[in-house]
Amino acid sequence: MSYTPRRHFPRKPRNHIKNRRNRTWLILFLIMIGFFLMRYTVSKENLTSQQNNTITQQAYVEINQIASATMPTLNNELVPPILPKIVVDISEQTLTLYDDDQFIKEYDISSSKYGIGSRAGSNKTPLGQHVIAKKIGNDAPQNTIFRARVNTGKRAKIDAETEDLVTSRVMWLKGLEKGKNLGSGVDSYKRYIYIHGTPEESKIGSKASHGCIRMLNKEVIELFDLVNENTPVEIIR
Question: pTM for this one?
């Protein structure tokens, strides 16, 4: 019977077990660090999202406040922004405001007592297509007198003035049709054709101006706030 000697393997050192335990704790520690980092990132994103929402809500409120403050009024009621168009009817002595093609309001006016015409120096009211080239007098008190489009700081007495005064607001018209209301000798802009208020309010509805389109002072202020520069103005017979 042969004898095989028993093999002896070297025993693993005790620090091997200790190293395994250290690696386990290190892995657990790294997992915990990763978990806390993930929670921190999510919390930060949620906070940023809430801040953005707050900013958006604040901006929305501010925009609405600005819109309400600047929105024009009609009959003391806020109206949304419109795409205005004006038609002045000489025969009817009216000015009609449209939103695109939808009727908004009609005002009584006073055109030239000298009739219809475009010639410079004629003091007549021109016909045809125009635009509002300039708006003058924003925030001036009602019945304020303007001379050469400058606020004098004085206020007219209604139906007690002897001059052809321009009051409250000025909307300076520019002709668009060359040879008819634009160009040499017939230019509405150079003739200083306005839509404006007048102290001669008792004459509104009849032909009494020196070429311009006169309106009641309260109503010219209302119209002024509803239209913009470059608003189309058509003057018809």
Answer: 0.68
